[in-house]
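quick one, two chains, predict together pls
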Amino acid sequence: MHDAPETLPTEQTVYLDHAATTPMLPAALEVMTTHLRDVGNPSSLHASGRAARRIVEESRETIAQALNCRPGEVVFTSGGTEADNLALKGLYWSRHDADPARNRILSSSVEHHAVLDALHWLAAEEHAVVDLVPVDAHGVLDLDALRESVASDPGSVALISVMWANNEVGTVQPIEEIVAIATEHGIPVHTDAVQAVGAIPVDFAASGVDALTLTGHKLGGPYGVGALLVRRELTLTPLLHGGGQERDIRSGTLDMPAIAAFATAVEHAVKAQPEYAERVTALRDDLVRRVVEAVPDAHLHGDLVQRLPGNAHLGFPDCEGDSLLMLLDARGIECSTGSACSAGVPQPSHVLLAMGCDVEGARHSLRFTLGRTSTPADVEALVEAIGPCVERARGARER
Amino acid sequence: MRIVAAMSGGVDSAVAAARAVEAGHDVTGIHLALSRNPASYRSGARGCCTLEDANDARRAADVIGIPFYVWDLSERFHEDVVEDFLDEYAAGRTPNPCLRCNEKIKFAAVLDRALGLGFDAVATGHYAQLGTAPDGTVELHRAADHAKDQSYVLGVLTQDQLRHSLFPLGDTTKSAVRVEAAERGLLVAEKPDSHDICFVSDGDNAGWLREKLGERAPNHGGAIVEASSGRELGRHEGTYGFTVGQRRGLRLGTPAADGKPRFVLDIEPVSGTVTVGPREALTVDRIDADRPRWCGPAPTSYTPFSGGVQLRAHGAEHRARVTVAGDRVTLELLEPAQGIAPGQAAVMNDGTRVLGSATIVATSRIGADA
């Protein structure tokens, strides 16, 4: 399919940060630029408006078909963060309003900040009781702990939110088991599947989740557009009030060109997924094996099997991750410390800490993520550079 | 050379970085994150520790066209600068944290890391000049712009540190730097200078010290005593609020017998006694200092030499006879100075050349009766 590199950021750059964002699919870029020339608000009643609306609805149907949900269950948003906030706050408010006893939210300790910080806000401002269920050393949710937490008082659980796959270490969560635990008590489940869609099989209806977050720019679509898939039966309290677009759950003029490109990217990513997974997993395994050959004490974080194809999160003992990142960057190799930044200052990753890693270990890590446009030459370049760069970064630390 | 340009987010370090690029160096911009909680440091556009400053530094690096990273040195900064500042105040002294930051952070932690990562030197926006003596010694000299000269806060740098330093602004005036920044399209061209201590919000040193010192020694109240009579004139809430030479904020009900203003002469941290007296009593002409740091080879012990001494940042230079005895330095001032507080640094110069610095431990008046 798309084995050859299409749109690398620059010719010299070895881009190994696809989990941060990945190049747009040329077909999506084409669709988007074409429609940027069109006039017509999808909410307008005239011919131009109807034409725009038609593209939005076709896009909705395309996404619904790719991810196996009903078109009416696709709520377009400005991206993953908004979709997560809408799911958590919208579900919490509506479930809590319906029954004030429901004041607990169960989630995992390794969620993205779009979920974690929304939960912290709900706890601080809305008196929600948030229980972050622990994970094991590989980042897999402790199902017994979740079961126990639910069982302690099932009637008080407003919702459960667990990410489909982790953005830092790539661990895929046991969504099926989580849904089984929740269903027993009629508790809705939200999942942040931003990293999962297009990388591993995602089937909304079959998964049994009630709400699912996805975003455009992680799968070959544009920035600034995403969706929350949400079962029709569920009531969500809106965050954004206005024109009543998107089932009155989410107001705001629909960004037709972005939505069309997003749908093109989702369709392609889902169709290409099996082949993508096979090719990228092989590339990733090669990367890990050869980096560990070059730096014998380097080690992989996360689960070996239940893992996103493109993710290689590696620990380099006695080697500051941000020094290593800078040295690789100087050679045109781009990767991530995989952690949130405050003022550009890397904080030790909450994900690694939750997995039992100490602060030192968390700082001595880098995330390399492969994607659709990755090639063996990218791995080659990293393998060549990593040994000397690690040595240098270690030297800088010993001084 | 491969250079790390320390970029605070201010105009000086931005122009310094741009000049380093123009001189043909391979420059990487580094902003030092010094606060453990960036939001808690001084707000507004005057510091080097706020989120806004980090963004200003990043935008300057964009305009100059160099890579930019933030290095987190908050732990080192807290241990070596903030804690030291508190310890000094707890001991009744008046430290200058900028010298400590240069000694321990900018030209130590940052420089070490830079050298380790394959860089050759650190460039900053300090106003000071470097020269090379015939024997190869790197000399630190005062800036061409005497009003802006910052060699005082660099007087703690050793030969090793100076060899890996670059001060691209040393030959320029501040106003020329602002003009140059505007010409280069740097948005920080009009940004005000920073004057306060970067980790003290709103410049409220006393309030900050009161909070941070907590139960530590000088945070208890004590007596304000008149030097001549030994009389208690009032009480205070903590010695941290005082510095030698201070006149304002004494809040004494009783005026002096001669009606003249009174000044803080001495602070005794253990008892909490603050001694006050007339301006004349602040005049000193002998200074004992320790912990010397020499920019070049240390002067010969026990052989007095003449030099200039600067006793505070942007303070006047006093002519002095300097005697070094190992780790102790005695300064006999030919022109007496006023209001010199223990803890301050004495920076010794020979003409425009900076010889080194030492920390003031005691002051006295030899020529009092002369």
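The longest strand of chain A covers residues 104-108.
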